[in-house]
Amino acid sequence: MKFILSLLLAMISFSTFSAPKSDLWPYWNKSDDASTLVVDHQDWQQLLDQYLVSKGEYTLFKYASVSAKDKQVLANYLERLAKTDPLSLNKAQQYAYWVNLYNAITVQLILDNYPVKSITKLGGLFSFGPWGDEVITINGKTLTLNDIEHRILRPIWNDPRTHYAVNCASLGCPNLQHKAFTADNTESLLEQAAKSFINSDKGVLVNGNGARLSSIYDWFGEDFGDKPELIKHLSQYRADLGTLDGKISYDYDWSLNDTK
């Protein structure tokens, strides 16, 4: 009976999963473009330097190796971001703030629940992952990871490359970047992340004149456009995809991006 219940819950979770639509939260759509305030992301960079490693087409996180001291560094970093008013920043600083915040929270969620095989195992009883859970309070407003990605980053910046920037701690996800995002490096990191993902098998695996694409191109089709628009986007970073005209399928690996 216990096995049947577990199987039923798993089936419910996977069958009900659907990617949220881009839905602006107007409160966050403000900035001070004259602001010269700079958010320090060095603590996050320190953690990336220490625990993020490259292996083949993946970047993997050494979750099991993170020391108690560095877990506190991460907690302090997130606490400092929570006390920062992003509306007081210019747009470039804001983008880096939200992307780093999302990625750092995701790592903290895994560390708080480690060992775990997949981030999809986190969250409530009938949840597919923790994305709808309240994870941080900023300016007196409690946010979820879904809020950060789908109600702030996507609708405000309207840049499909954001999907290559935020990381869901899964092998199928575009890689967590080795560099923390900053106002100065955002454009180069987005281009690097897009090129790397689209030229990896987990991003695009060509089969004859068709291809198996990452499910992000299916889930977030509204951001990438119809098939011709999607192919145009992909071919910007991989020229051979410009003639792609066969069957397209989608796949995604939710396994944890763990060095183990």
TrEMBL record:
The keyword Thylakoid does not apply. Pfam families: DUF547. It comes from the Bacteria. Residues 88-198 form the DUF547 domain. The keyword Signal applies. Keywords: Signal. Residues 1-18 form the signal peptide. This is DUF547 domain-containing protein. It comes from Vibrio zhanjiangensis.
